[in-house]
Design goal:
single chain, alpha+beta, Nuclear Transport Factor 2, Chain: A
């Protein structure tokens, strides 16, 4: 049986898989307070967005960069133990992945390492031939709750 998937799409998927591996390694570095690998993965354009547990959603590279600075300063001695893939949607120039990230890290001024999970949606886009992160939304909601948006934090 022959593979009827167009060569560009196969190559693009393989390339994207490598980028996702690099992204996961960058997020693991972020868990130790090192923002640089994640920053390198992000688009630096005006339409880039970030929503994380430390504050409201932001748009534009300057705002995203500031939010990454703050968030990375809140993590120490961390490790992302695994990335659980829920869904992936890929075209030639755009990809969205939904994952649950399993973390262990010191958060804020706490002295103990805490285990926590993040529900994460990430969108990557081809820019000048390279995949760049254009959106990341991470929140700690990973379990059902009948109160939905009124759940206790």
């Amino acid at each position: 049986m022959t593979d009827r998937t167009p060569r560009r799409r196969r190559t693009g998927r393989m390339e994207l898989q490598q980028v996702v591996k690099e992204y996961h390694a960058a997020v693991d570095e972020f868990s130790r307070g090192n923002r640089d690998p994640v920053t390198a993965m992000f688009s630096h354009r005006d339409d880039v967005t970030l929503a994380n547990p430390f504050g409201p959603a932001v748009r534009g590279w300057n705002e995203v960069s500031n939010a990454l600075d703050f968030a990375s300063s809140r993590f120490r001695d961390g490790h992302v133990t695994s990335f659980e893939s829920i869904a992936e949607y890929v075209t030639n120039d755009l990809a969205t992945i939904l994952e649950v990230e399993h973390w262990n890290a010191k958060v804020g001024g706490r002295e103990d390492v805490a285990a926590f999970d993040l529900r994460v949606t990430s969108t990557l886009r081809r820019e000048d031939g390279a995949w760049k992160l254009v959106h990341r939304h991470a929140d700690p909601i990973t379990t059902p709750d009948a109160d939905g948006p009124l759940r206790a934090s």
